Each structure stands twice: as structure tokens, then as C-alpha cells.
Amino acid sequence: MTRRLNYWLLAFLLIASVPYYWYMIDDPAAADVQAKPISITGLRKLADSLPGPRPVRVRSEFLGQCRIMRNRLVAGWGLRPIPVTIQAYELTVRGAKPIVINAGVSAATVHEYGISLFDPAAQNRVNKARAHAAHTVILSSDPLQSGNLHTAIPMPRGSEPYALAPGVVVIPAPGISPDAKLLYARLRNGREFLFAGAAAAAPESLNTLHPPARVAEAGGDSGTETKAWLMTINALRRAAPDMTVVTAHDPVDIPHVWKRFSDHS
């Protein structure tokens, strides 16, 4: 009886371990992934292609944090949930309207995701900045970035990078999800930023080159596309080692980023 029970337990473990490995641990990207044909030289040319004042500063608002299972951020990273930050960003332009990156979170999202340390005053500052902004760029349809407002903010469709404003380039990444995009900014003083959005969920994504596990895939071949963008971001970092890369859930303290949005009251 004991031997038979052991056989059944072993069979159960084998059956359960295969889908666990497949959906939680295995890198979902194809083996022959290639980086995207995007260069830092090309991004700089696009950033310089429109006349006018470039952004002078990047500001951020910490809106709260929630806990997400590591594997949902990076395949094979583990089952333990970790706290991740929720932030929005503002590119301030002297003498012109700002550009807002991401819209924060809605009240429904705060409840659904169990967001702690939520700061309504910070979200209100994001809302005021958006009302005053020349552009709002939402990098992902993820409710933790879009504020559930992505459908109300149309952006040009396509797959080629384009200049949105002087010093600011939008980089569509439709293979990850239809609304996914990155944003490159070159400030007036020459400092460069790359906001990765869904292409890099956390700094660990760039260290491991692992996209989220299959359990968190957006559909299609998003794992392969995400890995291609991770490779691309790392190539851009090698070409521009002083560039600040901001992932979707970066820590609160980001180099060369000022805290708190401008006062638009």
C-alpha cells in the first residue's frame, strides 16, 4: 500500500511539475531572438528633428505600491510576491506645456490590486498635469500605468519610432501588446532617458533578459517580442552608457529624476 501511494504521489508531482515549469519558470521567448534594428544614433536624430525647446527636467510622482509575484514580472524569478512601485513622470519644458508619461491609477485599480501607500494628492497632481499637458504618453494598457484611460488617449499607430516633440521620441512596440511603447527623451542639457514601459517590467528584466512568465503573457508571441526589446534596450545602454533607463516598476529613487510634479494649480 505504501509503495503504491508513493507511485501515485510521484506521478502527481510529475504531472503537476510540467505545467508549473512551463507557465512559471521557462523563458517563453523563442531561441532565435534578435534585437530590434534601433540605434541610439537614430533616436538622437529623431529627437533633434523637430524645432523648439526640449525638455529641461524629468519629474516623478510616487502613487503607491502593490505586491506582484516575481514570475509575473520575470520568468523564473520565483513565486514570492514583491512590492513594486507605481509612478508617473513629467517632462517639463521651459515656456511650453509639459509631457506626461503614464496616467497613474484609478480608484478601481487601487481596490482591485490592493495598492498600499496610495497617495491621492500625488494622483491629483498627475491629473492636473495631464489636463495642462501637450501630450500624455501611456506606455502600456496595464492598469498600473494607464489609469484605465488608455482608450481615451489615441496615439499614432505603426511600428516605426517617431518624434512626438522636440527631444522626445515614441517607440511603438506592438508585438508586446497593441498599445505598448517606449519613450526616449533627450533633455536640453544632453542627458538621455529611456522609459521602457512593458518592455522591461523591472530592473531584473534587463539583468536576466527574461520576459514575464507565460502565466502573465499578453498573448501572441509577446514573450519573444519582450525579450527582443530587452536585448535592444541593453544594446542602447551599451551605446549610451550614461542614459537613464526607467523600467515599468523602477525603485522610487531614479538618478537625475526630480520628485513631485510641477505645480499646475
UniProtKB/TrEMBL annotation:
This is Uncharacterized protein. It comes from Novosphingobium beihaiensis. The lineage of its organism: Bacteria, Pseudomonadati, Pseudomonadota, Alphaproteobacteria, Sphingomonadales. The keyword Transmembrane applies. InterPro entries: RibonucZ/Hydroxyglut_hydro. The chain crosses the membrane at residues 7-24. Gene3D superfamilies: Ribonuclease Z/Hydroxyacylglutathione hydrolase-like. The keyword Transmembrane helix applies. Keywords: Membrane, Transmembrane, Transmembrane helix.
